[in-house]
Specification:
- It contains nine helices and eleven strands.
- It is α/β, with parallel strands linked by helices.
- Helix 2 runs parallel beside helix 3.
Length: about 325
């Protein structure tokens, strides 16, 4: 993941479909954060692309997340094929004529991110009945079905910032995506509207342009839009930045990590460089994403103080019972 807030999901719709493996490799080297897969059935939209079998083969060619956008009439019927193909996230359209909630539930039960998308004319309110099942809200700023269309600024202004409200149940990881007409001319606008993931297609395959530079430029412009429109001029916190929330003996660190993660926030536990405990093992650092550090403090500051006190009591009891054990590798 590149340092910054905006993520680039590179659509391969305008790539050479006879050599998709090469396109995916190029995008990987160029710095794309994800591969966006536009699946069309020539029924829900008037175009036909590829299906789960192609995705299954592409999965072997890259470690990048695969972001499937199913523009098909019966996503529930074919869902298992896309799960088995290795898609990391699956988004389908709220306009389909079948039950929506069961399909979202199956995606999440499989450990993948579930999303809903909507045509430009469909209001955001159509997603409200399913909002607690959503990890992704994808706003279409062109009519689905073909690449290279003109970006609809009025749709972006109406829906992108408002889409965030549909993800308020997600303490961490909820994403607003924008798909359609995203390029160097529109990136700053959508960044300023709080978008997390920019789906970029034809702009990356324009003849004569450097793909890696285009990705860097679009990402930087989106982050700049967020900085000056949403963040009072302060550069956004990079999504990959982690901060240490506390340091504890291993058995206490495990317990506290489980408590924090139960609230939907990921924790990384690493052996630290600080206190060496009387059992000869260093404290473990609990790292949380910097983007949600304030929320973690609000939720868990009191528990942190309690755990630190418990750690001191445990150290004193250990020394009284067993003395101090030299750390491994020390004489």
């Amino acid at each position: 993941m590149a340092g910054g807030r905006a993520l680039i999901a590179a659509s391969i719709l305008d790539a050479d479909l006879s050599n998709l493996a090469n396109a995916v490799r190029r995008l990987h080297v160029a710095g794309a954060d994800r591969i966006h897969l536009d699946v069309m059935d020539a029924h829900f939209v008037p175009n036909l692309t590829f299906g789960a079998k192609t995705i299954r083969h592409l999965r072997k060619r890259t470690d990048l997340p695969l972001d499937a956008h199913l523009m098909i009439s019966e996503p529930g019927r074919y869902l298992d094929e896309y799960l088995e193909a290795g898609c990391d996230s699956i988004t389908f359209h709220v306009e389909v004529e079948e039950e929506i909630a069961p399909t979202l539930e199956r995606i999440r039960a499989a450990g993948r991110a579930a999303g809903l998308s909507m045509r430009p004319a469909t209001p955001l309110t159509a997603l409200e009945p399913y909002h607690e099942l959503l990890d992704i809200v994808m706003v279409m700023t062109v009519e689905p079905g073909f690449g290279g269309q003109t970006f609809m600024r009025d749709v972006a202004a109406e829906k992108l910032l408002a889409a965030r409200d549909l993800l308020h149940h997600k303490a961490y990881g909820g994403e607003v995506h924008v798909d359609g007409g995203v390029n160097r001319e529109t990136a700053e606008l959508v960044g300023g509207l709080g978008v997390d993931v920019l789906v970029v297609g034809s702009a990356l395959f324009t003849k004569g342009r450097d793909m890696a530079r285009e990705i860097r430029l679009i990402r930087a412009l989106a982050d700049e839009g967020y900085q000056y429109e949403r963040n009072d001029g302060v550069p956004p916190i990079p999504r990959d930045r982690m901060v240490t929330f506390t340091s504890l003996p291993k058995h206490l660190a495990h317990r506290f990590m489980d408590e924090i993660e139960a609230g939907g926030i990921p924790v990384v536990m690493l052996r630290g460089d600080g206190v060496i405990n009387p059992d000869g093992v260093r404290d473990y650092d609990l790292l949380v994403p910097a983007t949600v550090e304030t929320l973690v403090v609000e939720r868990h500051a009191a528990a942190r103080a309690r755990y630190l006190g418990e750690a001191e009591a445990w150290r004193a009891a250990f020394i009284a019972a067993r003395g101090v054990i030299a750390p491994p590798g020390y004489p």
